[in-house]
Specification:
The protein is elongated, with a radius of gyration of 20 Å. It is α+β, with helices and mostly antiparallel strands and 211 residues long. A 4-stranded antiparallel β-sheet has the order 1-2-3-4, sandwiched between helices.
């Protein structure tokens, strides 16, 4: 149908514009949460600080403001917004589907490894069915056939925003780890750029662009 190409383009632009979405990462959502033995109150406090830092690191990158900023870095997305698309509303619904949970922190001799799970929207077959159902319900009234490309993209952004608001929209869960080392007396993420790239891949990999 006429909407397939704009829909794929919209998903590609809005989900794959993260700053470092160029690397690959593995995940194992079925693995059991990792635990470590904490023997002192000081160690427990350090573990808590690492967990809070890692959670904040991921949460910042899946926030509405960050997703919106990423979208606005793309000239096409900015053009659609100027044509009337509610980019902010779309980013807000996208962000509402992301959740982060710290699974544990392993305190080792010279480093610590923090483990998190990232819940994100799953643009697979179930999502396709929801979009198709919504499209079928509104296409005739909207007169899609007569729309310009910009009008069609605005229409689909509104359509996807509505579909994302559906409580039954499918979600996926992926694991992501980060290594921390002690520098200048405090625990710091060892390679934040690498971890940011992993988050960017997980945020962007769910788009189904085969249509």
């Amino acid at each position: 149908m006429k909407a397939n190409r704009p829909l794929a383009a919209l998903l590609a632009l809005s989900l794959c514009v993260g700053p470092l979405a160029l690397c690959s990462c593995s995940s194992d959502a079925s693995s059991e949460p990792k635990t470590s033995v904490v023997t002192t109150a000081a160690a427990a406090e350090e573990q808590k600080q690492i967990a809070e830092d890692f959670e904040s690191f991921i949460a910042t990158r899946i926030s509405k403001d960050q997703l919106l900023a990423n979208m606005r870095e793309n000239e096409s997305m900015k053009s659609y917004e100027q044509s009337g698309a509610d980019l902010e509303g779309y980013a807000e619904k996208m962000a509402s589907k992301y959740k982060v949970k710290i699974r544990g922190v392993d305190m080792l001799k010279d480093k610590a490894v923090a483990h998190a799970q990232l819940v994100s929207p799953d643009f697979g077959k179930t999502a396709d069915a929801l979009v198709a159902e919504r499209y079928g319900a509104v296409k005739d009234e909207a007169d899609v056939a007569s729309m310009s490309e910009d009008e069609l993209m605005c229409f689909y952004m509104e359509l996807l925003t509505d579909v994302l608001a559906d409580p039954s929209f499918p979600l996926r869960t992926d694991d992501i780890d980060a290594v921390y080392v002690k520098k200048d007396g405090s625990w710091q993420m060892d390679n934040p750029d690498t971890t940011e790239a992993k988050v960017s891949v997980l945020v962007g990999q769910d788009a189904n662009l085969s249509n």
